Structure of E3 ubiquitin-protein ligase:
Amino acid sequence: MLSRGQSAPELASLNSGDPTASPIRKPDDVCCPMPGSPDPAAAGEQLPPPSQDHGQEGANPSQAIRPRDGAISEFLVSLLECPVCFGYMMPPIMQCARGHLICSSCRHKLSVCPVCRVSMSNIRNLAMEKVASKLIFPCKHSHCGCRIRLSYADKKNHEEDCEFRPYFCPYPDDKCVWQGPLKDVYQHLVSTHENVITMEGNDIIFLATNVNLEGALDWTMVQSCHGRHFLLSLEKIHLGEGCQQYFAACRMIGTMRDAAEFVYNISLEANNRTLRWQSKPRSIRESFVSFTNADFLVLNKSTVELFSEEGNLALNVVIRKAQEAGES
Ligand SMILES: [Zn+2]
Ligand SMILES: [Zn+2]
Ligand SMILES: [Zn+2]
Ligand SMILES: [Zn+2]
């Protein structure tokens, strides 16, 4: 029905006929096993007996150092690969009665040691916890291309927002199962979802046509400006008999850190009325339990009627850098 490259007033994306168009799926993390398999038995046998007398002193991650001998560092890091999930073990590091190490999340799922089959103990290996606090580890998305190495204190935060962590398709229709690196999200959207229209410029009109059509509907477009891509969407949701709400959102095809650098405005103007909304875009990475409790512009049916003309709602979307907008 619509194609890319149309003039602004004609641009609208209408995905009708889907009575179940619904909230964006929560982008749960994708479990990526670490490459390479350690030799668990060898790893366990290398360990010193657990120390019972020291606490966590000396484990200040801010003092993490990179041992001068890279080979020793790599060897120590390899000793900290969990034999079950192949992730790196971070404190608390548990061990069996014979000294085989296991990460704490795998420990909770097992009653016997995966290496020697003796009963698992609740003994921590404080010596290896101290070793872990001094090492730097590869990001868990290293097999997807991330080259960053970090102390365990910084690792989790980075991995949450790592640009190499696979992204789910952000199209507001949870039927698409695509996932891939951030750099491929835009191409996937425009090549796979033919309803998605693209538009260049930081000040555009996002025209949603036939907003009064019955059923749950969504309108989607990609706005490209400042060298980045932003996903605009208007969702119409039925909350019950005669009760409809519209959610207008701007999400960035970027990491949460990237998204924090921008501010967007949505304004509606019609029939001598003006409505303005300003917020920061969300990253497509962020998980939304549902549209109904997210930080978006929410319009009820009568507001939409006031601002729509001949069944079309024109949203003027302006995206600026937060610094230029006087925000931090
Ligand atoms: Zn594990
Ligand atoms: Zn064991
Ligand atoms: Zn990373
Ligand atoms: Zn998709």
